[in-house]
Amino acid sequence: PACHLHCEDGFEVDENNCPLCQCKAPVPVTQIDDLTTVQTTCAPVRCRMFCQYGFKRNSAGCEICECQSTQEIECPPVRCRMYCEHGYKTDVNGCEICECQSPPECLPMICSMYCEHGFTTDNNGCPKCECRPYPAICGDNIPMCLINCEHGLK
């Protein structure tokens, strides 16, 4: 099956070195001063505990043997070049992932009004029994054009 993820740091690989449809975690970077940043290579965490929300990180960005609570989860920015009209899906921690949300399922609208310019929509994009306002009339907001067109403007 095709993988539709865009991974800036490449893909994870399985035990046979075959790529998986899962992004590699970015290499942590430590800021030394305004001009110098150093890539930090972290050793894998070997702790005898399970942390539901993952491990805490030290100042170098490496995981340490302390569990992170739900309040401490910082979501990384979504590294995704895909536009999602209804936003991104979220993982178990509530962080956005590079998958599009499904469009909302709107209940059928029962409305006896006729609206010349259609209906307004709610926050989910579902139609409401409320007319859209008339489109704005240009009035004084007519764009100024300095091009002389023999047959007029389009």
TrEMBL record:
Tagged with keyword Secreted: yes
UniProt xrefs under Gene3D superfamilies: Antistasin, domain 1 (2.10.22.10)
Protein family: Belongs to the protease inhibitor I15 (antistasin) family.
InterPro entries linked: Antistasin-like, Hirudin/antistatin
Main location: secreted
Protein name: Antistasin-like domain-containing protein
Residue intervals of the Antistasin-like domain: 42-67, 75-100, 106-131
Example GO molecular function: serine-type endopeptidase inhibitor activity
Classification via PROSITE patterns: ANTISTASIN
Cellular component aspect of the GO annotation: extracellular region
Annotated localization: Secreted
Tagged with keyword Secreted: yes
Keywords, ordered alphabetically: Protease inhibitor, Secreted, Serine protease inhibitor
